[in-house]
Amino acid sequence: MSRLEEEEQKYAFQVMKGVNKIEIKRAIEEKFEIEVENVATMNC
Questions:
Q1: Residue 33, Cα to own-chain centre: how many angstroms?
Q2: Which residues of the chain fall short of a pLDDT of 70?
Q3: What is the pTM of this model?
Q4: DSSP secondary structure string, 14-42?
Q5: Considering the domain boundaries, does residue 44 fall inside one?
Q6: Residue 8: per-residue pLDDT
Q7: Do 13 and 4 contact (CB within 8 A), yes or no?
Q8: Per-residue confidence (pLDDT) for residue 5, from 0 to 100
Q9: Buried/exposed 3-35: b ≥16 CB within 10 Å, e otherwise
Q10: In this structure, is residue 13 part of a structural domain?
Q11: How many domains, the chain?
Q12: What angle do CA 23, 26, 30 make, to 5 degrees?
């Protein structure tokens, strides 16, 4: 695990272009059965 994963419980995912933060949050919550507090995105 990276430092961010261990200490701050932050994870990175690669998603399809055009997906918004709400869709990302819902997908992660459904897939991993957790509550997502915040989603930050960046274009690469």
A1: 13
A2: 1
A3: 0.82
A4: ---TT--HHHHHHHHHHHHT---------
A5: no
A6: 86
A7: no
A8: 80
A9: eeeeeeeeeeeeeeeeeeeeebeeebeeeeeee
A10: yes
A11: 1
A12: 140
Structural domain includes residue 43: no
- What type of residue is 19? V
Type of residue numbered 17: K
Does residue 28 fall inside a structural domain? Answer: yes
Handedness of CA 21, 23, 34, 7 (dihedral sign): negative
Range of the domain at 14: 3-32
Task: Answer positive or negative: Cα dihedral of 24, 28, 30, 34.
Answer: negative
Which tokens go with 9? 């419980």
- Show the tokens assigned to 38: 């915040």
